[in-house]
Amino acid sequence: MDDAEGTGETSPFHAGEQEAQERAGVRDRAERAGGMIRDHMPEQHRDFFAQLETLFVGHVDQQGRPWASLLTGESGFIASDDPTQLQIQADILEGDPLRDSLQEGMDVGLLGLEFHSRRRNRMNGKLHSLRPGAFSVKVAQSFGNCPRFIQTRHLVARTGWRSGKQTRARVIGSAQRRLIEQADTFFIATQFSEGKGEAAEGVDVSHRGGKPGFLRIDGDAQILWPDFRGNALFNTIGNILLNPRCGLLLVDFEGGDLLYMTGQTEVIWEGPEVEAFDAAERLLRFTVEELIHLEDALPVKWEFEAYSRVLEKTGSWE
Q: Among 49, 42, 60, 298, which residue's Cα sits nearest to residue 159?
């Protein structure tokens, strides 16, 4: 890693993140914000993870393809004995690519997100102590994120739940198209590593949100979405600049379906395509290489809080 400009301290950002920050004109701001990135979890983050009933996981399969996955469990399925690690006990869903990816020492990105409070915290690190139904993650980077673009939902138990059929494909079919077009939320996993063992290297998983329709399908294998003004860290885009592979996860919060996709992404920085999206800073174009659609897969669901109620409480749907 390079020294932070003007600080003489080691930057928490790798070259791709720094390039994206520079191009967006937020390099100095990002470096200041980088002070919140730690090599351990503060107590409030440890307590936050321990109360969650869901956890989003970014990982890379044996072919080097990133995926984003979702783990569920009763509150307490995530625990922390010390500030440098999380212990996770969860059964991975049949068909989830994480089942075949798990191995000792692999990089993972974790995102804890509580939809009803719109709180989210991230932790990236290495997996260890792998055993049936459980593993631990050693912290490399730990930091919080603002609640922008998180749609408020309330987690409830499902009744009559059953695991449905699985579909694997290389193009977007009609069932997947409906899920994508109605989505207001998705999760993206990216990865970059030069093998130096630096804290900024590894896997990251992040939330993206917008009003339904912000994901636009082009043909049968491409998806475009706007990138709005955010926290200026550029973890996701920074990784993509150095490694265009990424994984997407869409959740049918009411129906229980999961749509996993992996492929290649390019960043569109300017031009008429960007201008066509209201408030977009830039666009990302994703090309599907493989998708996995698990129908009725989740043992939980979320009740949606209308945009009008969010607007009434916060003054902004964001």
A: 298
